Amino acid sequence: MRLATLRQALWHRHVNAIGAPAALRPWLTAGGSLTARLSAHSSAFRVQRLHQRTALCLADEAAAIGMARPGRVWEREVLLRCDDAPVVFAHTVVPLSATASDWPLFNALGERSLGTTLFYDPLVSRGSLEFARIRAGHPLMQRARAALGADGDTVLYARRCLYRRRRGVLLVTEVFLPAVLALRLSLPNTTINNTK
User: Fold this and answer.
1) What is the pLDDT of residues 150-173, one digit of tens each?
2) Which CATH class is domain 3-182?
3) Predicted TM-score of the model (pTM)
């Protein structure tokens, strides 16, 4: 397989297209706030901010945020931890053209969850979820491994969603780590319509 292919993920509109394990599908397809769901299934939830800075967006996310080719964006990466175990690696990009009025709290999040602002702001609209298999050559796999300080998994499963507020867009990608399967989950194994 060519390196260029490994560095991009194929995003699909339906979870069945990525062959995710049955136990993971409820996490991938659940609507609403992932932060709230993780908090409800652990004794202690926290956000570990890895960085927030300007960076070049990934090749497979440029079109999704309205860019003709990869360009500079605001990038935020965090680990979501339940009972101190990292369960989700989250990657967010916002075009540099976005203004403070588009995303007023983005630069001040620190170690607070982005979900706490997105899901409770009436001006935010949420697009449909997309799903992908993230392979070893993909930058998000490499970054997740670096954050965890571990090798091992050759495939991880991810979802992403585009959010809009005023004239701004924001793309959130959530890569589910193996430890998420240790959390109790009492959700039906169905895809939920996520259009707000």
Assistant:
1) 776 678 999 999 999 888 899 999
2) alpha beta
3) 0.87
